[in-house]
Amino acid sequence: MLAEVMKFCNNYFVRSTEKLTLSFDSSTKTITSTINFAEKYIAGQYIKITDSFLNDSIYKIALISNNSMIVEEKLFDELNVECKLDGLALSRDFLLLVDKIKSDVDSDKYSDVSEIKRGDMTIKYGDRANSSWEEDYKKSLSPYIKVRVV
Fold it and tell me: Which backbone phi and psi does 92 adopt, to 5 degrees?
């Protein structure tokens, strides 16, 4: 959900960027660089990986060392891939708002159709085609939205 909200806002809160050769280990959830990281990263910080083959995504750092980090999310095995690593700086308020949006989405608040089954009969109701988390939270997210340049 975090990546979806960031994409909606056109804002990834990038604090730093490095181009590195990275390897990804799925069994240990470890990202390793061939050289030490130039930027400072901390446990709990979010990062964004791009230009990999299988691991382009946003990750939360669990543990960090000079040239490797363990993340909380699943990784796919890749070896020595030239990637871009962005260090992100997300505010607490933004993360709390994303948690609230995720809670609404997980509760099926935005399901298009709900149904009740009674024997061999099914009743469908609740068309919410005109409602979405994007519409409901647009005003709350407005301080974080960056203008798209076309």
Answer: -60, -45
Whole-prediction pTM value?
Answer: 0.84
Every domain of the chain and the residues it spans: 2-88, 92-144
CB contact burial 64-77 (16+ within 10 A = b; e otherwise): beeebbbbeeebee
Q: Please compute, for residue 43, the number of CA atoms within 13 A of its CA located in the half-sphere on the CB side.
A: 5
Tell me how many degrees the CA angle 96-101-107 measures, rounded to the nearest 5.
125
Q: What is the pLDDT of residue 137?
A: 96
Q: 3-class SS at 83? A: strand
Domain 2-88 belongs to what topology? Elongation Factor Tu (Ef-tu); domain 3 (2.40.30)
Which segments of the chain have a pLDDT < 50? 129
Q: What pLDDT score was predicted for residue 109?
A: 82
